[in-house]
Every structure is written in C-alpha cells, then in structure tokens.
Amino acid sequence: MVAKRIVLHFPHRLVDQPIVYNLVKEFNLQFNILKAFVTPNEEGLMVLELTGKRENFDKGVEYLQSCGVRIQSLSQDVVRNEKKCTNCGVCVPICPTEALVVDPQTRKVLFNNKKCIACELCVKICPPRAMEVHF
C-alpha cells in the first residue's frame, strides 16, 4: 500500500470534470481531501491524501498527468523559513497533526513536513511569519 499527500493543480478546462471520482472508479484508490479551491473558469487546486496499491497508485498518477493535472508532493509546498523562525512555539499547540513540536532538550521548534496537512493554521498564527505555503 502507498499513501501520499499530494497537491493537484487542475487547468481551468478540467474543473468541472470527475477526475478524482475516476481515481476511485478506475484505479481503486482512496482519497481524503485536505483542502480544495475550485472556481469555474480558473485553475483548481486540491490537496489530498491518496492511498492504494502501488500499481494502482502509479496508474492513477499517470492518468492524472495524461489529463493535464500537475502533481507535486505536499511536503514541497509547506516550509519553515529558518531565518525568520524565532522558536517562540506559538505554532505548536495550534498544529492538529503535531507536525510542529518543541524539542525538549534544545527548546527549538521542529517541523515534520510529512505530518503536515497544509491547514495553514501555523501560517496565520506565526508572529514572524516563518511558516510559508507555496501552492
């Protein structure tokens, strides 16, 4: 089984097509939508966790690309700017997945982007604006 958090960028011509439905029907994949921005006549963006057998997952990704959907890993999009971060820890209690934690020895804030679901709560609350989302 493969489970990955990915960002899908849909060209405006596809926003009214059942692309994600076809991942379930044709490739037996499961998905959990973490975030979606879809506006008619504009590019659509969807952050989702996609799960399934490796072969089906690979075929599903191939299908998305053949439709013109641009795919990227979610971990590429949520970053912490180390130069801006003051390790104040304000972001830690707001993070629903514990992607942000305080190291008990160094007292520095650690960011595990593999746990991140791009909810952007940390972006809104971070005083020095060290958390950044690049969709």
Classify the secondary structure makeup into a structural class.
Answer: alpha+beta
Q: So how many helices?
A: 3
Average of pLDDT: 91
Rounded Rg: 17 Å
Biggest sheet, strands in spatial order?
A: 2-3-1-4
Order of secondary-structure elements: EHEEHEEEEHE
List unreliable stretches of 5+ residues: none
Beta-strand share of residues: 25-35%
Characterise this structure.
The protein has helices at 19-27, 54-67, 121-125, and strands at residues 2-10, 30-37, 44-52, 70-73, 78-80, 100-102, 109-111, 131-133. The protein starts with a strand and ends with a strand. The protein is 21% helix and 31% strand. The longest helix has 14 residues, at 54-67. Strand 6 and strand 7 form a beta hairpin. The strands form three sheets. The chain has a four-stranded antiparallel β-sheet. It has a two-stranded antiparallel ribbon with strand order 5-8. Strands 6-7 form a two-stranded antiparallel sheet. With 135 residues, it is of the alpha+beta class.
Question: What's this, in brief?
Answer:
With 135 residues, this protein is of the alpha+beta class. It has helices spanning 19-27, 54-67, 121-125, and strands at 2-10, 30-37, 44-52, 70-73, 78-80, 100-102, 109-111, 131-133. The mean pLDDT is 91.
Provide the fold topology.
Layout: E1 2-10, H1 19-27, E2 30-37, E3 44-52, H2 54-67, E4 70-73, E5 78-80, E6 100-102, E7 109-111, H3 121-125, E8 131-133
Helix pairs in contact: 1-2
